[in-house]
Write a structure and sequence with these properties.
198 residues, Chalcone isomerase, 2 domains, five-stranded antiparallel β-sheet, two-stranded antiparallel ribbon, 3 helices, globular, binds heme C
Length: 198
């Protein structure tokens, strides 16, 4: 009798743990499914993006910018699979697309240009996370800036800001508009998977 009770308790416990994991998993999936805004229109820091599709990493190191690069880091860019597929199919991004650009410092270098020796040769590698810029497609909400909103969650080490107010067009959208208006405000030339090699 005792054994049966213990067995029953074990089964109930296991079921509870499985249910809990399942439900928290669902919450995470929902919150990373599309852009989330606060009641006053701030964008909430996206979560789970490092598990999205990684589409490329433009690099603008100090060594190539007289030591004064605006962004002396790798720009790791992520997008959700369904939005990548939407672009590949239609040449425009679906409504609700979120593109995350996470800045990542170079690994500590051995040379003045920031490069380092490694078993694979002299070059650059990624160090610490150092900031985040995000673009969101919502043609109604961001009608004034070609249907995209621009957000900065800090240019510094983790943690990033929990929310971000839309950046003024003069700080972000203007430059994207000048150089990438024909490709849905996104610099697709930097990303092989968006250039059509899919
Ligand atoms: C002077 C021009 C310029 C300004 C200003 C600018 N960007 Fe960009 N942005 C670029 C270029 C060029 C790329 C692609 C190459 C790279 O990352 O170096 C890019 C890439 C991005 C990407 C990755 C997706 C894409 O379009 O390639 C995001 C997200 C982004 N920028 C957000 C922002 C935000 C947010 C701001 C303002 C805080 C901003 N940008 C300001 C030129 C600019």
């Amino acid at each position: 009798m005792k054994r049966i009770v213990v067995l029953l308790l074990l089964i109930t416990g296991l079921a509870a743990v499985m249910y809990f994991q399942h439900s928290t998993g669902k919450v995470m999936a929902a919150s990373s499914d599309g852009p989330q805004f606060t009641a006053d229109g701030k964008l909430i820091l996206p979560v789970g993006y490092r598990k999205w599709i990684f589409i490329g990493a433009p690099l603008t190191p100090n060594g190539l910018n007289n030591g004064k690069a605006g962004f002396p880091e790798y720009h790791n860019v992520y997008i959700q699979e369904k939005n990548l597929e939407g672009y590949q199919k239609n040449g425009v991004f679906p409504e609700g697309t979120v593109i995350v650009k996470e800045l990542v410092l170079l690994r500590k270098g051995d040379y003045p240009d920031g490069s380092a020796d490694s078993p694979s040769g002299r070059g650059f590698g990624e160090g610490e996370f150092n900031g985040m810029d995000v673009t969101v497609k919502d043609s109604k909400r961001f009608a004034k800036t070609n249907g995209w909103g621009f957000f900065n969650f800090g240019h510094h080490a983790l943690p990033y800001e929990p929310t971000s107010t839309e950046s003024p067009a003069t700080e972000c959208a203007g430059c994207h508009q000048a150089g990438a208006a024909k490709t849905d405000m996104t610099w697709v030339d930097f990303y092989p998977v968006l250039r059509g090699n899919n």
